[in-house]
TrEMBL record, chain A:
It comes from Punica granatum (Pomegranate). GO terms for cellular component: cytosol; eukaryotic translation initiation factor 2B complex. This is Translation initiation factor eIF2B subunit alpha. It is found in: Cytoplasm, Cytosol. InterPro entries: eIF2B_alpha/beta/delta, elF-2B_alpha_N, IF-2B-related, IF_2B-like_C, NagB/RpiA_transferase-like. Belongs to the eIF-2B alpha/beta/delta subunits family.
UniProtKB/TrEMBL annotation, chain B:
Keywords: Cytoplasm, Initiation factor, Protein biosynthesis. Belongs to the eIF-2B alpha/beta/delta subunits family. Residues 160-171 have a biased composition (Basic and acidic residues). Pfam families: IF-2B (PF01008). It comes from the Eukaryota. One of its GO terms (cellular component) is eukaryotic translation initiation factor 2B complex. Component of the translation initiation factor 2B (eIF2B) complex which is a heterodecamer of two sets of five different subunits: alpha, beta, gamma, delta and epsilon. Subunits alpha, beta and delta comprise a regulatory subcomplex and subunits epsilon and gamma comprise a catalytic subcomplex. Within the complex, the hexameric regulatory complex resides at the center, with the two heterodimeric catalytic subcomplexes bound on opposite sides. This is Translation initiation factor eIF2B subunit beta. It is found in: Cytoplasm, Cytosol. One of its GO terms (molecular function) is guanyl-nucleotide exchange factor activity. InterPro entries: eIF2B_beta_subunit, IF-2B-related, IF_2B-like_C, NagB/RpiA_transferase-like. Residues 138-175 are annotated as: Disordered.
Length: 396, 417
């Protein structure tokens, strides 16, 4: 998505003045995804993916318990709306089934990865489908996955999860030997198992990374990542002695949540503000980050701030390790930071910002592969260049 | 089999006492030993491959524990395990194809046929093959190969076939062992001839009037340079002496004996000389999965000098040196400290090395590491017996030579030691 093709001033004028032009160019796209039309994301300005992350991993007040209650209180009206809408969408109640509601329902569970939620939602599509041939089912699934993808274009694992499942449906040879009903039940069964696969992937990654965490090392982590937490948890269980420096992870302050979890495990942990990374880098032995998505070049897309940490670590010759499940591998090839659909998050600065001041609200950045040392995935320990190989094998 | 056991113990002792040195010699002897283990192993009618794998693994663990730094041992053990798996698979696929035909022919009077659909031979073979492959995105969502499916298909034959099948099976077990030993022989031959295969590529890399720098001594490098000379290339070789073992002296002598224009330099002169050099060609102790190299001490310095002057740094390595592990803290964990006698004369330094004097511990410490770790970004090219490869391509070669199951098992064993 070339949003900054010419100059940003021209871009802005396009946004306001040349809107009709733009629309007249786009009809083929809108007709292609009819379902997306009817279920347009109400607030497309804000990245739903990062909203969910903030809701699950963010810390708002300093007191953990109080903030947990506050979070429950804060989000309950919204979730009530969602659950009621998904209840309404239940196939039994007569209203049309909506894959997006289903997905949002799954996504609300804090322990569930985004891709798992996507695949569960697609499984629900299969279950409620009235198709009688494989072809019909495929078309229906394709529609559903397209509408899911367009509903939240900022979520890479949603897209990757949908693509992975679609590929499984269209290309798996095991399905060819079965009749339609058993193929359908097999698909549902595999989709249900995917949560387990996701959990197992996290375990495998944790096991693989144990060799790399040595006694007495200091690890820098950025933000909250389930996989990184699993890695550190396993290391603590294996009686390794290590220290963790957590960044704060503004604006969601997800780092506070991680430091909280680590303190529960009796791991010595120190909190840094995001700008203290370079200051502390010389006492750090390795950087561990998660990833929202791993792209074809072997680079990662992750929470804002990962890129600068990787740059600092690279210039001080510290290894940067990425822990990411393989279903986060996405068929994207960003060339620079602005090369992706923008994922915006409102930032609370505590004080009112004058309206003339622009605020950078992007929630994620792209870290190019040359700044990463190794990727720990459930496929094994990989160098960044292996990622494209895996993706090519899968999709070509 | 007391015979094999004694052989194993003998080899373990040799490894422990560092009596075998050099990855080629070690690799060859390991392969020969494993061949005799396989040939002596008695195997039953069921799960023959499993028995072989267990036997090889048990021996392999002892060997690896004997000298964990000699990575070639582990590599060969994994290669042999991979060979067994592959041979077993090809036999199973062949047998399955035959069995399936017979199963289909007497399907109508088979009443124990449950609702489980008989998978076609192709599907079973595909499932079995997927166990050999390293895990990939492709197999992420696919079913784990169902272990119950295979016995079911093979047991679906009628009673009348039982006799012919057992005879068939015993011949199959003999065939498996035979095939594996054949393949191990091929592996040994590969190890023996990897010099020649690497040397064959010499003319593509060494050109007229070039200056080549090398450090220490490596048989592969010697053959490589000589092969280029044979093809009427005239070039000069700088040999860094490779302190403290000074194997560079031996290499220089050999090169001169073969008629190559040779200059001997000290290790510390490498940086001064590197600007005149067109290419650095060195041997390696082991190549790790990320493309990093475990090499004789001093090579990291050479690699850095080469990078400073943008001189290509070429590493020659036979495929038995490819190690499927990733290095973590390689400078310490994959290193070995040798005797200080190589560095200094005990007679002269006996005073300061005396434990009796002063505080109780000697004031002088001697550290004599054997290996350097050269990170992948400093290596321009690997030349193996299969051709030239980029460091980032190493993992692919490794995926061809080893099965994923073996890496993990071996690592677990290493961790428990």
């Amino acid at each position: 998505m070339w949003r900054r093709s010419a100059s940003f001033i021209l871009d802005k004028r396009n946004d306001t003045g040349a809107r009709p032009d733009f629309v007249s160019l786009s009809p083929p796209q809108t007709t292609a995804s009819t379902m997306a039309d009817t279920l347009q994301n109400p607030n497309a300005k804000v990245s739903a993916y990062y909203q969910t992350r903030a809701a699950h991993h963010g810390v708002v007040t300093s007191d953990w318990l109080a903030q947990a209650q506050a979070a429950v209180g804060k989000y309950s009206p919204e979730s009530d709306v969602r659950s009621s809408s998904s209840a309404a969408a239940d196939p039994g109640s007569g209203k049309p089934f909506s894959v997006i509601d289903e997905f949002n329902n799954w996504r609300k569970q804090p322990d569930l990865a985004e891709a798992v939620a996507a695949i569960r939602a697609l499984a629900a599509v299969i279950r409620s489908s009235e198709a009688t041939t494989m072809m019909e089912l495929e078309i229906e699934l394709k529609k559903a996955s397209d509408s899911l993808k367009s509903w939240d274009t900022t979520s890479i694992s949603l897209t990757a999860g949908c693509d992975l499942f679609m590929r499984y449906v269209t290309r798996t040879s095991a399905l060819e030997y079965e009749d339609f009903n058993s193929a359908k039940s097999r698909l549902i069964e595999r989709a249900e198992k995917f949560g387990e696969i996701s959990y197992k992937a996290r375990r495998i990654i944790a096991m693989l990374s144990q060799d790399f965490i040595f006694d007495g090392c200091t690890i820098l982590v950025h933000g909250f990542s389930r996989v990184v937490l699993e890695v550190l948890k396993t290391a603590a269980q294996n009686k390794k002695l290590f220290r963790v420096l957590c960044t704060e992870g503004r604006p969601d302050r997800t780092g506070l949540r991680l430091s909280n979890e680590l303190a529960k495990l009796d791991v010595p942990v120190k909190l840094l503000i995001d700008s203290a990374v370079a200051y502390s880098m010389d006492e750090i032995d390795m950087v561990f980050v998660g990833a929202d998505g791993v792209v074809e070049s072997g680079g990662i897309i992750n929470m804002m701030g990962t890129y600068q940490i990787a740059l600092v670590a690279h210039s001080m010759n510290k290894p940067v390790y990425v822990a990411a499940e393989s279903y986060k591998f996405a068929r994207l090839y960003p060339l620079d930071q602005k090369d992706m659909a923008p994922a915006l998050r409102p930032i609370d600065f505590g004080v009112p910002i004058p309206s003339k001041v622009e605020v950078e609200t992007s929630a994620r950045d792209y870290t190019p592969p040359q700044y990463l040392t190794l990727l720990f995935t459930d496929l094994g320990v990989l160098t960044p260049s292996v990622v494209s190989d895996e993706l090519i094998q899968l999709y070509l | 089999m007391p015979d094999v056991q004694s052989l194993v113990i003998e080899f373990v002792l040799k490894l422990k006492k560092r009596k075998v040195e050099g990855s080629q010699a070690t690799a060859r002897q390991t392969a020969v030993l494993l061949r005799s283990v396989i040939s002596q192993q008695r195997i039953g009618y069921t799960n023959q491959a499993g028995a072989l794998i267990d036997a090889v693994k048990a021996v392999g663990e002892q060997l690896v524990a004997a000298n964990p730094v000699e990575l070639a041992v582990g590599n060969i053990v994994r290669r042999v395990l991979h060979i067994i798996r592959e041979e077993d698979l090809s036999l199973t696929t062949a047998a399955m194809a035959g069995l399936n035909l017979s199963a289909v022919s007497d399907d109508d009077d088979d009443n124990d046929q449950d609702d489980h659909p008989v998978l076609s031979a192709a599907a079973v073979a595909a499932a079995a093959r997927s166990t050999l492959r390293p895990p990939s995105l492709q197999t992420l969502l696919e079913d784990m190969p169902d272990p119950a499916a295979v016995p079911h298909t093979s047991s679906s034959g009628g009673d009348s076939e039982e006799k012919s099948k057992s005879a068939d099976k015993s011949s199959r077990s003999r065939k498996l062992k035979h095939d594996v030993i054949e393949a191990v022989n091929e592996l040994i031959e590969d190890i023996d001839t990897c010099h020649e295969q690497i040397a064959e590529q010499a003319v593509e890399h060494i050109h007229h009037n070039e200056v080549i720098l090398t450090l220490g001594s490596s048989r592969t490098v010697l053959e490589f340079l000589y092969a280029a000379k044979e093809k009427k290339r005239s070039f000069r070789v700088f040999v860094a002496e490779g302190a403290p073992r000074y194997q560079g002296h031996l290499l220089a002598k050999e090169l001169v004996a073969r008629g190559l224009q040779t200059t001997l330099i000290t290790d510390s002169a490498v940086f001064a000389m590197i600007s005149r050099v067109n290419m650095v060609i060195v041997g390696a102790h082991a190549v790790m999965a990320n493309g990093g190299v475990i090499a004789p001490v001093g090579l990291n310095m050479v690699a850095l000098a080469a990078q400073r002057h943008a001189v290509p740094f070429v590493v020659l390595a036979g495929s038995h040196k490819l190690c499927p592990l990733y290095p973590h803290n390689p400078e310490v964990l994959l290193n070995e400290l040798r005797s200080p006698s190589e560095l200094l004369d005990f007679g002269e330094f006996s005073d300061c090395m005396d434990f009796g004097s002063g505080s109780g511990s000697p004031l002088i410490h001697v550290v004599n590491p054997t290996f350097d770790y050269v990170p992948p970004k400093l290596v321009s090219l690997f030349i193996t017996d299969t051709g030239g490869h980029n460091p980032s391509y190493m993992y692919r070669l490794i995926a061809d030579y080893y099965s994923a199951d073996d890496l993990v098992l071996q690592r677990k064993a290493a961790a428990s030691n």
